[in-house]
Amino acid sequence: MKKTILIFLLLSMTFMSVSSAENWTGADQKAEEAIKRISPDYEPWFTPIWEPPSGEIESLLFSLQSAIGAFVVGYIVGRNRASRDAQDD
């Protein structure tokens, strides 16, 4: 198990060091670029209510959102498994 984790970490670090920062742009930014290319005179329907003051805070909020989602999914899976195990006994 430890060997598998170590290999996974080494491969992940190698991939991250080889890839360029350009590949890590968000889907929103890529969609905006595509829309500008297809229809340069397009105007958005609305503007955001609040924009984070920096990219770091935006990343923090995104990470927090994914952590909460992972917790909820893990809780539901764990609860279902525990109830199934309790029924088997």
Estimate the helix proportion, in percent.
Answer: over 70%
Rounded average pLDDT? 85
Major beta sheet summary: none
**Number of DSSP-assigned strands:** 0
Report the principal-axis shape: extended
Order of helices and strands: HHH
List the defining traits of the structure above.
single chain, 89 residues, 3 helices, extended
Explain how this protein is built.
The protein has a domain at 53-89. The mean pLDDT is 85. It has 3 helices and no strands. It is 71% helix and 0% strand. The chain has helices at 2-18, 27-38, 55-88.
Summarize it:
The chain contains 3 helices and no strands.
List the helices and strands and how they pair.
Layout: H1 2-18, H2 27-38, H3 55-88
